[in-house]
Amino acid sequence: MQFVRYTDGTAPTWGVKDSSTIHALSGVPEGEPTLGEISNRTYRSRVTTLVESDTLTQVGADEVSLLAPVPRPGKIVCCGLNYRDHADEQDEEIPDQPMLFGKAPTAVTNPGDPIVHPDPDKEEVDYEVELGVVIGERGKDLTESEAYEHVAGYTVVNDVSGRTAQNADGQFYRGKSYDTFAPMGPTLVAGADFDPNSVDVELRVDGEVRQASSTDQFIFDVGELVAYISQSMTLRAGDVISTGTPGGVGIFRDPVEVLEPGQTTAAEIEGIGSLTNPVVDRSSRYIVTQQFLEESAQVFLPPRERCFERLRLARFGETVTCVHCGDDAVVKRGTTDKDAQQYRCKHCETYFSDLTKTIFWQHRFGLEEMFYIVKEMRSEPTAQIARDLDRDYEAVLNFVHKIQDVSGDIDEFDLYDVCEADEVYVTAGEKGLEDEDGNPRKRGLKKRGAEPSHQTNRQS
C-alpha cells in the first residue's frame, strides 16, 4: 500500500495512492494517520476496505504536490558500505558490522523540490539512491524478527553528499547535512507485500543511469540493521534509517561525474516510485521549497476550516464561485480594498494571496520571502537573510522591525487575528464589533489569547 503525504495548496494531508488516484485519509473516522497507525496491520486493513469501496474522497495525483513522508525526522541514521558492489568499487573489505553515521534532519526536502548546490567551484556534490526505513513504533534492543514490527514503511532517500566537506572533515556529518541534501519520497510503502530486501534500485542523472542494483545486494538486511541500531539507541516513530547505496556513485566513476546545477536526479526503487529533484545553484536567487511553504502554513495560518467555512456560512450564506477555477467552495469578494479580496476556493494554489493585502502589503515582498524572513529572523542576522533572498538590506531590516513592532518579544505567534482586511480570516464577519471587555477590536498580529505587545528587540 502506497501512503502519500501531499498538499493541494492548503495544509498537508495524508492519502493512499492507487495508480493515478489519491484517496484522502482525512475522511477516515479516526482522522489522518500517525506513523504508528500506518505500521498497524488492522489500520491498513480498514483503509484497504475504504479504498476498495471508493468511500474516500479522491483526487488526481497530478493535481497535487507530493511531500516528504517525514518532513522532520527525529533522527536520520545512515549506513555506509551496505552493498557488496559499493564496497567492491572502493576496494574495501566487507564490514563485519554496520558502519553508521548521521545526517541532519533539516536536510530533508520534498519530491520535485530543488537540491541546492552550495558552491559548484568548491564543493563536489554526489548522489546516492537509498532505501529509507521509517520507524512507526518506539523500539529498543530489538531482535531481527521484532524489528519489522516497528517499521511504518519504506521510502526513497537520495543521500546527497558533499564530498569536499567529507574529505576535509575526515567524517561525514557536515558533508551529508547541507540543506536539501536528503530528498525523500514520493510514497511510503507499508505492508507485507513489499519485501525491502529484494527490490531493484536505480538512480538516473538527466535520464542516464548512474546506479542500478538490488537490495538483495545488502550486506546487512533491514531486520539486521534496525536491530543493530536499536542496541545502541532508542528508535522512535518518525526516525529514518537510510540503508546505504549501491555502486556507481559519481565520485568513484572514471572520470568523476558529480552533480552540477541544471541537472536533474531521479532516484527510483521498485514498488515505491521515482523521486525526482532538480539541482540548482545556491548563488542564484533563493528558492523556497514547497516543504517550507507547508510548514509556514501550519505556523502562520489558522486552520482552513475556520478561514473559509465560517466566513462563507456565517457571513454570506450564499453560493459564489472561485474566480480562478469556478469551484463553489469559496468565500465571497471582500470590501476592505476595492480589488483586494477576490476570494478563491480552498484548492487553488493562490490560497495565501490574501495575506499580501493585509499588514505586509507595503513591503512588496513575495509571500515566500515574508515567511522566510519571519522564520529566520530569530536566529540569523538580517544581513544574512538579505543575502539569502538577494534583497536590499534596508528593506529586509524595515520588514523585520515591522514584525517585531506588531508581534512583541514572544517565542511564537501566528496570523490569528489579521484584521487589516477584516473579511479574510477567523475574525471575518465581526468587523466593528467590540471585544468581551467592550473595547474595539485591535488590529494586526497577536498571539492567541494575548494582547499584542509593542516592546521591540530589534535586529541590526
Automatic annotation (TrEMBL):
<dbReference type="GO" id="GO:0046872">
    <property type="term" value="F:metal ion binding"/>
</dbReference>
<dbReference type="GO" id="GO:0016853">
    <property type="term" value="F:isomerase activity"/>
</dbReference>
<feature type="domain" description="Fumarylacetoacetase-like C-terminal">
    <location>
        <begin position="75"/>
        <end position="280"/>
    </location>
</feature>
<comment type="similarity">
    <text>Belongs to the FAH family.</text>
</comment>
<feature type="region of interest" description="Disordered">
    <location>
        <begin position="429"/>
        <end position="460"/>
    </location>
</feature>
<dbReference type="InterPro" id="IPR011234">
    <property type="entry name" value="Fumarylacetoacetase-like_C"/>
</dbReference>
<dbReference type="InterPro" id="IPR036663">
    <property type="entry name" value="Fumarylacetoacetase_C_sf"/>
</dbReference>
<dbReference type="Pfam" id="PF01557">
    <property type="entry name" value="FAA_hydrolase"/>
</dbReference>
<keyword id="KW-0479">Metal-binding</keyword>
<dbReference type="InterPro" id="IPR051121">
    <property type="entry name" value="FAH"/>
</dbReference>
<dbReference type="GO" id="GO:0019752">
    <property type="term" value="P:carboxylic acid metabolic process"/>
</dbReference>
<protein>
    <submittedName>
        <fullName>5-oxopent-3-ene-1,2,5-tricarboxylatedecarboxylas e</fullName>
    </submittedName>
</protein>
